[in-house]
Automatic annotation (TrEMBL):
UniProt keyword terms in alphabetical order: Transferase
Domain (Beta-ketoacyl synthase-like N-terminal) ranges: 4-114
SUPFAM superfamilies in the record: Thiolase-like (SSF53901)
Cellular component GO terms held in the UniProt record: cytosol
Record-level Gene Ontology MF annotations: 3-oxoacyl-[acyl-carrier-protein] synthase activity
Pfam family, one: ketoacyl-synt
Name this polypeptide is given: Beta-ketoacyl synthase-like N-terminal domain-containing protein
Residues in coiled coil: none
GO BP: fatty acid biosynthetic process
Length: 129
């Protein structure tokens, strides 16, 4: 017997205009932008200090062990994935089990982030997290 394929349909979002799908949708339909000036210490030496940071920090929504083990991109992906899981009706499969996977885009983003930090450090940049 071959394994059954399952597709879970649910929406999840962690964006610059909202910490969940509902807030994001309301902001987008009202024309609100998530772009703003960065006012954090590590951005002082950057040539451009505007960005679209996420609206909600993921750490308070996660277990302490998840915060320690996951990088920021993975934390954001996990928060959005959990919302999608809930939106799909929380199917009776353990989301913490071995079948739970991170979306490929999050892995690519994390690799890109690591490369950017490596290149900045190699060039002697003040870019820090």
């Amino acid at each position: 017997m071959s394994p059954r394929r399952v597709v879970v349909t649910g929406l999840g979002a962690t964006t610059p205009v909202g910490g969940d799908v509902t807030a994001t949708w309301v902001a987008l339909t009202s024309g609100r932008s998530g772009v703003r000036a960065l006012d954090v210490d590590w951005a002082e030496e950057l040539p451009v200090r505007i960005a679209a940071p996420v609206a909600v920090e993921p750490a308070p929504l996660l277990e302490p062990v998840e915060v320690r083990r996951l990088d920021r991109v993975q934390q954001l992906a996990l928060v959005a994935a959990r919302e999608a899981w809930s939106d799909a009706g929380a199917p009776a499969v353990d989301p913490n089990g071995s079948r739970w996977r991170c979306p490929p885009a999050a892995a690519v983003s994390a690799a890109s982030c690591a490369r950017t930090r490596y290149c900045a450090a190699r060039a002697g940049s003040a870019f820090r997290r």
